[in-house]
Amino acid sequence: MLNLERLRTLDALARHGSVSGAAEGLHITTSAVSQQMAKLEREVGQRLLAKHGRGVRLTDAGRLLAEHAARILSQVELAQADLEAQRGQVAGELRMSAFPTAARGLFPVALAELRRRHPALRVRSRETEPENGIRGVIRGDLDLAVVLDWYNKPMPLPDGLVKALLLDDPADVALPAGHPLAGREEIDLAELAEDEWITWGEGEFCHEWLMFTLRSKGVEPIVAHRAAESHTQLNLVAAGLGVCVAPLLGRDPLPDGVVTVPLRQRVRRHVFVVWRADADRRPSIRAAVRALRAAGQRVGGAALTDDAPNDGELYAEAPDVEAPDVEAPDVEAPVAGAARAGGHVDGSPLAAGAPVGAAS
Are strands 144-150 and 92-98 parallel, antiparallel or unpaired? Predict the structure, then answer.
């Protein structure tokens, strides 16, 4: 009989593409990965790995078994989620990530509320960029990730993930206090054609969005400085070194010498949380999404979508009865293995803001 932990090791190798990546994802040593794979090869009686340069690659048999392993592990996760849902306990470990301003603006409130309401739940959080958060959820290194996209540039969501909107985050432009346009009630992006911009790193989603947006307004941006963290950008603005986009979430306090002015285009970014469809029924996932939505309502208020529940619904306890069926809004329901084998979902009852007792 195939050993589940060894299949998990093979799955991690297939997803990460290297022994070191698999070891990091599984939080074990590289020698432990090699030992598990050697035992799995003896179990199946075939070579699963072959040397490839300085690393290894999966053989045909390895790829075949890895495909089965992904489906098996997805079924195991579904079974665990159903058992947790039946038990109704919010416990165990939950791994979460958020991009920097969301980690600063949402996590303190949401994680403190989770600790207060669910002391048996151990939350482990990290700060990472949206693309890395999504990859972590797909690989199984994370349970949830808080990510973003922009009103005019959606971020593609891979198959098998579910998302829930947390808030719409308005963004202004940050100017040095002595800037000629600092006293205006609103400005157009085209009026900043001659200004130097402070932006994110080359290739980052937010940087690409800014370049796309400015060019769509006929502005060829002059990029003077790059910084991943918004407060670093704002301090560069305070020093008179350029202008930057300044979303509301996690922005305060503004450095002295910085003025924010609304843009005529009403720029917004969408902040949402993603998780795997096959984990949708886990009480810990549901509790975390509710806590994040409540934190988002504190920040965004009416900016959150109309279908969001109020605070009472967000923290209502699930009754000890079978959950009623809830019709999902025009999406295909997730199937077994969807999170690994395809089947993007954006309409689970939880994502749509359904009360705790609603069926997945």
Answer: parallel
